[in-house]
TrEMBL record, chain A:
<feature type="transmembrane region" description="Helical">
    <location>
        <begin position="60"/>
        <end position="82"/>
    </location>
</feature>
<keyword id="KW-0813">Transport</keyword>
<dbReference type="Pfam" id="PF02653">
    <property type="entry name" value="BPD_transp_2"/>
</dbReference>
<dbReference type="GO" id="GO:0006865">
    <property type="term" value="P:amino acid transport"/>
</dbReference>
<dbReference type="GO" id="GO:0022857">
    <property type="term" value="F:transmembrane transporter activity"/>
</dbReference>
From TrEMBL, chain B:
<protein>
    <submittedName>
        <fullName>Branched-chain amino acid transport system ATP-binding protein</fullName>
    </submittedName>
</protein>
<keyword id="KW-0547">Nucleotide-binding</keyword>
<feature type="domain" description="ABC transporter">
    <location>
        <begin position="11"/>
        <end position="244"/>
    </location>
</feature>
<dbReference type="InterPro" id="IPR003439">
    <property type="entry name" value="ABC_transporter-like_ATP-bd"/>
</dbReference>
<keyword id="KW-0029">Amino-acid transport</keyword>
From TrEMBL, chain C:
<feature type="signal peptide">
    <location>
        <begin position="1"/>
        <end position="24"/>
    </location>
</feature>
<dbReference type="InterPro" id="IPR028081">
    <property type="entry name" value="Leu-bd"/>
</dbReference>
<keyword id="KW-0732">Signal</keyword>
<comment type="similarity">
    <text>Belongs to the leucine-binding protein family.</text>
</comment>
<feature type="domain" description="Leucine-binding protein">
    <location>
        <begin position="46"/>
        <end position="401"/>
    </location>
</feature>
Automatic annotation (TrEMBL), chain D:
<feature type="transmembrane region" description="Helical">
    <location>
        <begin position="131"/>
        <end position="150"/>
    </location>
</feature>
<keyword id="KW-0472">Membrane</keyword>
<feature type="transmembrane region" description="Helical">
    <location>
        <begin position="231"/>
        <end position="250"/>
    </location>
</feature>
<feature type="transmembrane region" description="Helical">
    <location>
        <begin position="262"/>
        <end position="292"/>
    </location>
</feature>
<feature type="transmembrane region" description="Helical">
    <location>
        <begin position="103"/>
        <end position="124"/>
    </location>
</feature>
Length: 283, 244, 437, 356
């Protein structure tokens, strides 16, 4: 019984990270219909920025804030310079561009910071069954999801962003600056991605550190459904807890296989994810 | 200030050309729409009516030619700028965003305007104008019927308090009775607020019954134009282009 | 004449089809390649090659080895090289992916025409190329892995092991724990590949009943929370970590996180305290101590001197070389030192092979010569015994960088043979010839 | 012989060529290509032979994926998984049934991956967009873990080691192993490409394109989109399996870590880099997979860069190349070359040439 509780708690803290990444993927998908493979690359550069800043100044939180800023700025640049030119082309073009960006960023990170792992601090104390750091992660993700919900549901900006995502041409006709909205979407998503990176990286940072987390982030987004923030968050926690239980009871070698099984089962029952509302039939 | 120049027309189009690849869907169209009028743009399927509206509103880029509203050059502006100059476009089918609620759709129409209080006022006016929308304000727009969607689309466009309203086939797919109500409403709006309406229609008889003027397009060019009554009375034009 | 080329293709295709009717797995014994060649050797140079993960998920840590080796070769070259030959050292990145290992080793052997392979890294990776290297007659020196398969002189006469193999080292660990913690419950945390299986074969011999829990980890999955919980739950008072430094550090951190404080025992591959210190530098132990305090009391086995050891004549030399030839950002770690020692012993072998360098003369030199020196245990390259280092010592780390020898080096075999003390006089750098003419 | 008769002669040959049955045409082209490979490998050194063979098995994997994406419009991020299946099938057969001939092993590897393709294709036929991408992505990551689950049979994370028969004894004096292996690889690859080309140009290809372009219309005209998609998936899975089996044959290795996410994603990248819609595109993609890395390495060496920079230059270059190609040459290298070719031709014909 105690083991069960421990595994669940362990799953909750890794689930928070998956949820954050899933959120960021969801926003970009909602805004531009692109699955952003560059997300781990953007988050990686953000985290390395935090690493350098923290080493130089000794302040974790200064690094943290700058990581979010750099992450967001990179997202904005990526949208403007790379995604916009291919936006009107096939889904594949955008995937490939983001993939290329991922490779480029990982390569650049290796060039600048080397492939050796460096020590990377936790935001708060990491000790305890459910440590301050774990609580921070869960709270940060919860606040983010709630904030997104409020943003999308109740603010003019959110309304514009949704309109731009659903029907860009119509949105333009009612005065929405669609391009700006897409850029804002990428910016917000990349800030959240950077947050996910800051939560996922510790204790060590190296260029491939986010690869696995990213795969689970996509998995979480897919099983949760790319429709609303709660789907992504619930998908993240479901996956985190599920995989922790598999690792604890069945063995760590089965974790990736279990993720595959979960995806297959979920998608064969609900092809649009667990928490997507059944689609309104469009006439 | 010297003697006041005559007020410029609400909308002027000069030699407009708009193409899809090599196909010139609009091929040198010129027209003038007086302020406060209802103007019908008629023609068969594929005559270039929709492209004309889309090019005027900036949804599509023009190859050449000019578009002016109240004397202000709109030619190179994208759609989101054009609407800020008082030209609102209701696309074919209305373009309601089905995933948003009725109220969200409506609010969207006025969001670009800075005057918050007037945005709220405009919304209340729309609910008065279309009481059925008020009843269903919390429902997703996807749940509305065809006629209700048209009302929502028009209401959303009016939220911008435009001077010119471009309407693309509002009667498409609607029951005749609903269409008649819609057209009557346009007339009332024009009479009440001085709104200028450009109405693209395949239903020429219905459109001409409310319009002041009409233009007939054929293969991207203006084939005939004139007062609505005259066009209605002109058998040749009716038979050649309007099919009734 | 015009018809001829298509005919060739048809014939080739036909030959392929007929040939492909024989079993794909029925491998004919090829003739051994001649060793009386000096491929890759000129009057003033000798070309060596290696494959290591320099990028990708497995690169962390290992990429330091070639840096250390290169520094020693640079030093040797600066002293005039070996028999007047400058050592050229080609390092190919294989990303720890066997597919790429095969490709880069082919490139080294067939295109770059290296004289010998030195220190190819990894079990799954190097296992794919030992057949090829032996067929091609390329001496395959000092494989950077503790797997047992490098020591097979009958089937792979040109492959020479280097590290003390995982089973030997684990036997020495097992015996030490059994003797010094006779009543403790023991947990094993191991990498789920040959490191895990080979070490457990050794631990079993001494700790059979004492081991209460075995927890594997998959390299690449850094979430080891469930395993550490299981170790604690099983009440393991001694945890033997058969893992690489990253996972040693993760184990220490994760244990700290849940307030679990067993006695850790690390094997040589994971006990690089400088690297561990670097990995843990941002973290403090429960009492607010530094990373160094977290490592305090760590017991480890080893066969090379520790990078932090004092009063070691070889380390004095290596420190000099480090300061002169290693780029600034690289810390002086055990891993770096590992590459240095490997390169030193390679240079010793090249010196022993004499001025008329052929592959045969190198193999003969390896079989007849002694290559003791930097290592603290005897090193075997004798005919019929290509195992490399023969045993290990046990040490304990104390915060502040001091390592204390708990048990002098002992040797054993990889089967069930006894663990024995031995008589060994370790030569100093002055007594060893690894450059000159 | 005057210019004119030469031209009519060539036209006649071309005409006859176009009218001959498609399969025959493709077989003849494959034979010509095989001849080219035999010649090429005969004049190059063993290491280049090996590289040529490496390009071969990458080519068939890329071509299979290109068929799936270009013709049926589905995106798979998990094609490495099928290579995994092919490689392990080959490995297990070589180890446990050493008497089984190579062609039988290859066929069995294809069969095994096709079977997996049926399962995956049927499961994913209903998925679209990101859901298909996510599901195939996790397939690429998850499936190789099977090897970890059954370490006795599949070798765990260290994978399987084995040796494969080289040049037959009769030829072993004249043909070095790598050359022989590259012939075997390319023969199998070219035969598979004939199948792919026939499918893509033939009736099945037309139907697949119809479903890709307008699913509803295709369904109305009596096609069954779900089933057609699955068929496309199976064919491309078979290509992946063959590629994996050939890799195992060539390199004597099957290890889970070789079939990770990076492999699947680079296959996809190669498809786009080369250009969809033609086998030439697949060839450019396969070449890029092998050579961008090599060039990056050489460039780093030539520039004398520091270790960190040099080690990471190839991957950064590949990423940058990918972005540049998609932005500048949307239809890939093949599309870009075709455009260049057309430009050159019109210039040669001059302004008097026939207008479009």
């Amino acid at each position: 019984m105690e083991q069960l509780a421990e595994l669940v708690l362990n799953g909750v803290s890794s689930g928070a990270v998956y949820a954050a990444l899933a959120l960021s993927l969801m926003i970009i998908y909602q805004a531009t219909r692109v699955v952003n493979f560059a997300q781990p690359g953007l988050a990686l550069i953000a985290a390395y920025t935090a690493f350098s800043v923290t080493r130089a100044t000794g302040s974790y939180w200064l690094g943290f804030v700058l990581a979010l800023v750099v992450g967001g700025a990179l997202g904005v640049l990526a949208e403007r310079l790379l995604i916009r030119p291919v936006q009107r082309r096939s889904e594949l073009s955008a995937i490939i561009v983001t993939l290329g960006l991922l490779m480029l960023l990982q390569g650049v990170a290796g060039m600048v910071w080397s492939n050796e792992p460096h020590s990377f601090p936790y935001p708060l104390d990491f000790r305890g069954r459910f440590s301050a750091t774990d609580a921070f992660a869960v709270a940060a993700v919860g606040v983010t999801a709630l904030g997104l919900l409020l943003l999308f549901r109740y603010t003019p900006l959110g309304l514009r962003m949704r309109a731009a995502a659903f029907r860009p041409e119509v949105a333009r006709m009612v005065g929405v600056r669609v391009g700006l909205m897409l850029t804002v979407g990428w910016g917000i998503a990349s800030v959240i991605g950077a947050l996910a990176g800051m939560l996922a990286v510790p204790p060590f940072i190296f260029p491939n550190v986010l690869d696995g987390v990213f795969v689970y982030g996509i998995t979480a987004a897919v099983i949760g459904g790319l429709d609303n923030p709660f789907g992504a968050v619930l998908g993240g926690f479901t996956l985190g807890i599920g995989l922790s239980l598999v690792s604890g009871y069945l063995g760590p070698e089965l974790v990736t296989l279990a993720a595959l099984v979960i995806v297959v089962v979920v998608l064969s029952l609900r092809p649009d994810g667990l928490f997507t509302r059944p689609r309104a039939r469009q006439v | 200030m010297s003697a006041p120049a005559p007020a410029p027309p609400a909308l002027e189009v000069h030699d407009l050309v708009s193409a899809y690849g090599a196909v010139r869907a609009v091929d040198g169209v010129s027209l003038t729409v007086p302020a406060g009028s209802i103007t019908a743009v008629l023609g068969a399927n594929g005559a270039g009516k929709t492209t004309l509206l889309r090019t005027v509103s900036g949804a599509k880029a023009a190859q050449s030619g000019r578009v002016l509203a109240d004397g202000v050059e709109l030619t190179r502006l994208p759609a989101d700028r054009v609407v800020r100059h008082g030209v609102a476009h209701v696309p074919e089918g209305g373009g309601v965003i089905t995933q948003l609620t009725v109220e969200e759709n409506l609010r969207l129409g006025g969001l670009w305007r800075a005057d918050r209080a007037d945005r709220v006022r405009a919304r209340e006016e729309m609910y008065q104008l279309f009481p059925v929308l008020a009843e269903r304000r919390r429902q997703p727009a996807g749940a509305l019927s065809g006629g209700e969607r048209q009302m929502l689309a028009i209401g959303r466009a009016l939220m911008a308090r435009p001077r010119v309203l471009l309407l693309d086939e509002p009667s498409l797919g609607l029951a005749p009775m609903v269409t008649r109500r819609l057209l009557r409403l346009l007339r009332e709006l024009r009479d009440g607020t001085g709104l200028t309406v450009v109405l693209v229609e395949q239903n020429a008889r219905g459109a001409l019954s409310v319009a002041d003027h009409g233009f007939v397009l054929s293969l991207g060019r203006v084939a005939a134009s004139g007062d609505a009554d005259r066009l209605l009375a002109d058998d040749r034009t009716r038979h050649a282009y309007l099919g009734f | 004449m015009r018809k001829a080329p298509p005919l060739v293709a048809v014939l080739a295709a036909a030959a392929l089809l007929t040939a492909s009717c024989t079993g794909a797995g029925e491998v004919a014994e090829g003739d051994a390649a001649s060793l009386d060649v000096s491929t890759g050797v000129t009057d003033d140079s000798v070309r060596l090659g290696t494959h290591m993960p320099l990028t990708g998920p497995a690169a962390p840590g290992y990429s330091q080895i070639s840096v250390g080796a290169r520094a020693v070769f640079d030093y040797v070259n600066a002293q005039g090289g070996v028999h007047g030959r400058q050592i050229e050292y080609l390092v190919e990145d294989d990303g720890y992916d066997p597919v790429r290992t095969v490709e880069v080793v082919n490139e080294l052997v067939l295109q770059d025409e290296i004289f010998a392979m030195v220190g190819g890294l990894g079990t799954p990776t190097h296992a794919r190329v030992i057949d090829f290297l032996n067929e091609q007659g390329v001496p395959d020196l000092f494989v950077s892995s503790g797997a047992l398969m490098w020591n097979q002189p009958d089937t792979h006469p040109l492959t020479f092991g280097y590290q003390v193999d995982y089973t030997r080292e684990a036997k020495i660990q097992g015996q030490y724990v059994a003797e010094n913690f006779p009543d403790a419950s023991v947990g094993v945390f191991f990498q789920n590949d040959d490191v895990g299986t080979d070490t457990q074969a050794g631990l079993e011999q001494y700790l059979g009943e004492q081991i209460v829990v075995r927890e594997p980890y998959e390299s690449g999955n850094t979430d080891i929370g469930p395993q550490v919980s299981a170790l604690e739950e099983a009440g393991a008072e001694v945890v033997i970590c058969e893992c690489i430094p990253t996972y040693m550090a993760l184990l220490i951190l994760e244990s700290q996180a849940i307030g679990y404080e067993p006695q850790f025992v690390a094997s040589s591959i994971g006990a690089d305290t400088v690297t561990l210190n670097g990995l843990l530098q941002e973290f403090a132990d429960a009492d607010g101590g530094t990373a160094d305090d977290m490592l305090d009391g760590l017991i480890a086995t080893g066969y090379l001197p520790q990078a932090t050891a004092a009063d070691d004549p070889w380390l004095e030399l290596y420190t000099q070389i480090y300061e002169e030839y290693v780029p600034e950002e690289q810390p002086f770690t055990n891993t770096l030192l590992y590459g240095m020692v490997q390169a030193t012993q390679t240079s010793m072998a090249l010196m022993a092979a004499g001025p008329d360098l052929t592959r045969q003369s190198l193999v003969d030199a390896l079989h007849s010569g002694e290559f003791n020196g930097p290592g603290l245990v005897p090193f075997s390259t004798a005919e019929g015994e290509h195992s490399g280092f023969q045993g290990a010592y046990v040490t304990q780390y104390h915060a502040g960088g001091r390592s204390e020898i708990l048990q002098e080096p002992r040797v054993t075999d990889r089967e069930t043979g006894p663990i024995e003390e031995f008589d060994f006089s370790r030569p100093t750098p002055d007594e060893v010839v690894f450059y000159g003419g | 012989m005057t210019d004119d008769t030469a031209r009519t002669g060539r036209a006649a040959v071309l005409d006859r060529w176009r009218r001959s049955p498609m399969l025959l045409r493709h077989l003849a082209a494959a034979l010509a290509a095989f001849l080219g490979i035999v010649l090429l490998t005969s004049v190059t050194d063993p290491f280049t032979n090996l590289r040529i063979a490496t390009i071969g098995y990458h080519l068939v994997a890329v071509a299979g994926l290109a068929l799936l994406i270009g013709v049926s419009g589905q995106i798979s991020l998990g094609h490495g998984a099928f290579m995994f299946i092919g490689a392990y099938t080959m490995a297990l057969l070589v180890i446990h049934v050493p008497g089984s001939p190579l062609w039988a092993n290859l066929l069995l590897a294809i069969a095994a991956s096709c079977a997996a393709g049926v399962a995956v294709g049927a499961a994913t036929a209903r998925l679209h967009g990101p859901y298909l991408a996510g599901a195939t992505l996790i397939l690429a990551v998850g499936l190789p873990a099977v090897a970890l689950r059954y370490p006795e049979a599949l070798g765990g994370s260290n994978g399987l080691t084995f040796s494969v028969a080289g040049t037959p004894p009769a030829l072993s004096d004249t043909v070095p192993d790598p050359r022989w292996q590259s012939w075997v690889v390319w023969l199998a690859v070219l035969l598979a490409l004939v199948v792919v080309a026939n499918v893509s140009r033939g009736r099945l290809g037309r139907r697949l394109r119809a479903v890709r372009d307008d699913e509803a219309a295709a369904a109305l005209s009596g096609l069954r989109p779900g089933r057609l998609r699955t068929v496309a998936f199976v064919i491309s899975a078979g290509c992946g399996g063959l590629a994996g089996a050939l890799q195992a044959y060539l390199l004597g290795t099957a290890t889970p870590s070789s079939f990770g996410l990076a492999l699947s994603l680079s296959l996809l990248a190669a498809v786009v880099l080369g250009g969809l819609g033609s086998l030439w595109g697949a060839l450019w993609g396969a070449l890029a997979l092998v050579y961008v890395e090599v060039w990056g390495h050489d460039a780093a060496e030539a520039l004398g860069l520091s270790d960190h920079v040099a080690n990471n230059l190839p991957i950064a270059l590949f990423g940058a190349a990918l972005i540049a190609i998609v932005l500048l040459w949307p239809s890939g290298v093949q599309g870009g070359l075709a455009r260049l070719g057309a430009a050159v031709r019109t210039r040669r014909i001059g302004p008097g040439g026939r207008p479009d």
